[in-house]
Write a structure and sequence with these properties.
20 helices
Length: 487
Amino acid sequence: MDFDLEQPAPLAGNAAAAVAPKPAGWGDLFSGRHGIYTFALAGGVTLHAVNMYIATTAMPSVIADIGGLDFYAWATTLFVVASILGSALTAKLLNGSGPRGAYVLATSIFALGTLTCALAPSIPVMLVGRAIQGLGGGFLFALAYALIRIVLPEHLWARAIGLTSAMFGIATLIGPAIGGIFAEYGAWRLGFSSLLPFCLAFAIVAYVTLPRKSRDTNERVAVPFLQLVMLTVAVLAVSAGSLSAQLAWNLAGLGAGLALIVLISGVDARASARLLPRGAFNVSTPLGALYLTVALLMLAIQPEIFVPYLLQNLHGQSPLWSGYIAAVMSLGWSIASFMSSRWQAHADRLMVLGPLLVLAGLVLFALFMPVNGAGDWSLLLPIGFGLLLVGFGVGVTWPGLVTRIFQCAPPTEQDLAAGGMTTVQLFFMALGTACAGMVANFAGIVEPGGVEGAANAAVWLGTIFALAPALCVLVALRVVRLTGQRG
């Protein structure tokens, strides 16, 4: 079965501006061919997201079984690096294989990595499997955003992006439960292999439903080898620096990563094979401001990685409860992603409101998380509400933000814009994680450690990372000035 995409004739002059956008409802997104496409796109992101949480939950059991504690962090590091590479190469994959072939190939790569992890006899094999998983997952993640623009009409973009974004919140609830159940019974291999039937089903759905060719036949995509090498080195440098307990090594890794970002921007501006669309590294352009907004929002949410530790050490919560309280942030992102797609008539206000909510949430985090409350709900409630605000702030901005990236990208660089958005998102998540580790180490989470170290770390994490959404408010105001009522 092969669906042909209907192409509306372009509107001349100011006629386009005179046509009122068609009201979009959830029924439009889930009905007929649109519903089939939506299921396929959301399924790929769900596979990638659920796997992330299964792996995180199962890794302690993996290490206890096959060893390799020294390489514990690299299971995540290699996964993230490979995911970034996958997202950066998505435009090339889509251009060469078309939507159907790209999705089937991406799912096959992901399934191969999953099978390798499930059968791994040692930690080196596990690391190889995680890298392959990351590559396939990066493809799936970026392809979802790229194909929204290709297979759905523009008036449904915001809802589709909201739904796709919400899959991470849903995965936060599903993934740890699956990984935890299998790990508790010493069957972590089944935790990985449980994804394989879904990979097969998803590959079949993608093959049957997605179009064989993309309408972007005029888009030429070359692989930016030099930029990819520098990007990989930047992620590895920041990640390696964050693993050290010495502040000097933390700063060295972070400095090397930031220096390489500057080099990448210079190289990409002059290269014929580009990592991001033209203007993406220039904040005076709409695309540059939009990508910077993505980067700042991703930096702002990274204190989340220390939330379970802080809740256990400062507020007497069990690992299970601390994990689910931390998941409130992802829940807020999911709820806001669903809701904000209905509010796109106020897209400019949402663009500024989102960072303000993130800022308010981090202020609550800085005020209430450091207090040693021993389970006092008068402290846990504002902490939970703060986490909800942080996630809600990102989610309320996200659909309009991604939609504007599509609209502002040059017509011949649409696939590059979609893959670039995911590349920026994943890179700054990795950078933010490293920065959070550096701030926590500096604040004394290891030395002196204990309650005092955890309290100091909570204060510094909330205060330092609040700077990201504060700056993001200014950037969002610039986005509104540059892009007007888009989205």
